[in-house]
Amino acid sequence: MWCHELDRLGDDLCALLGTAELLSARYFSGEELIYPDELTILAQMGELLEGLRTTDLLTFLSPAERKRLFAPLKGGDDEWEDNGEDAACPPSPAARSLARELVVLARAEALTQLGERDRGVDMVAAWMRSGTA
Question: Where in the sequence is the domain holding 127, given as residue range(s)?
Answer without folding.
Answer: 92-133
